[in-house]
């Protein structure tokens, strides 16, 4: 270990829900930022008709996961018929649309379209809320804040402010509200792609014209949208391996608060007050030889470790939390999975239920339960291979909830790995369904390309 790398091994405290009600789902990964929820007696055997409290037709597709606070649900959609990005609020109890706003500024993003890129719509990031303000982000750079009744408080475009994104695929990190700030990581490659993406053009660039494109963490005031700080995050990665589509995750250990961020071949912890880097660990890309290892799964915290999924069939890595400075590669590592084992994930972010990790291998079509202390795989369950399983898993009530691109939902017993139920919630020709199943107020909320379902006992 280097002289300035000191592992503190702090005992982590349980992260409380960002809203007053722990039954809410206020963030893409839920009230505890790990894909889990507290619930009991959830419905198991359901169909598109059975145990459906309500179904609401949406104006268009989107990969965003529904956000639930109190009696309101927030989500986004790409209204391709009108070529608009929309922010939507529904009544949680009956599914009625309370308000729907054209949230996009009209900025064309990477392709000139207002609603989408080459393989994904700009309505992929999920909203986030502190119970007073709800913040939406779209892949074209639009960042918008509303009050819960739909009054627009502010709007800005991150590309217009700081220069065009330099991503090979459509950018889709979700914002995080924590400690009175909205956090949005923009971890991108350091040179333009093609003729336009990453070229100079933002307000700052027109004045300063930086020599290279920077990756950064943006912190803004949720009530005004004004920048509180923009912290540059350097990385030794190269080309596409600099690109990260991950979300910033809070971690609190006995008063030490950190913002965890993975991408660019490293895991880092940051002070939420100013973005200052507290420590970093890595890499899974030895010598940074792989130039096309973009990163999609977000870091997940459980049992004093952070789980990081290296891309494209590479292992997962369990890293000790509570470090200082540059952490030695071996000293910081708790364990890693074996190469070519079922324990790998290219796109889905794992879940943690307070006792175990659940990792979806979208390349092999399987899900595994993992001991967080040792990395031992307790069970692995195979999934159908007709469509990709790229939505991140949800764990609640002793069950694991998964959904594939076709809208097929599978419920698995968390104890033994047995598949309890299959429900086909999408249309026959659906593809690219990516939203996670949401557990809130003892109900399941399932978003397909065309509809949002509320499943209730």
Describe this structure in words.
The chain has 3 helices and 33 strands. The chain is mainly beta and 457 residues long. The chain has a single domain, classed as Methylamine Dehydrogenase, Chain H (7 Propeller), CATH 2.130.10.
Short characterization:
The protein has 457 residues and is mainly β.
The separation of the N and C termini measures: 54 Å
Taking all Cα atoms into account, the compactness measure Rg is: 20 Å
Number of strands: 33
Model regions low in confidence, pLDDT < 50 over at least 5 residues: 1-20, 200-210
State the helix count: 3
Provide the CATH topology.
Methylamine Dehydrogenase, Chain H
Give the neighbour order of strands across the main sheet: 14-15-16-17-21
CATH superfamily label: YVTN repeat-like/Quinoprotein amine dehydrogenase
How helix-rich are the residues, as a percent range? under 10%
At CATH level 2, the architecture is 7 Propeller
| CATH class identity | Mainly Beta
Strand content: 35-45%
Helix/strand structural class: mainly beta
The profile of the biggest β sheet is: 5 strands, mixed
Domains counted in the coordinates: how many?
A: 1
Overall geometric form = globular
Average pLDDT works out at 90
List keywords for this structure.
single chain, 457 residues, mainly beta, Methylamine Dehydrogenase, Chain H, five-stranded mixed beta sheet, four-stranded antiparallel beta sheet, 36% strand, disordered N terminus
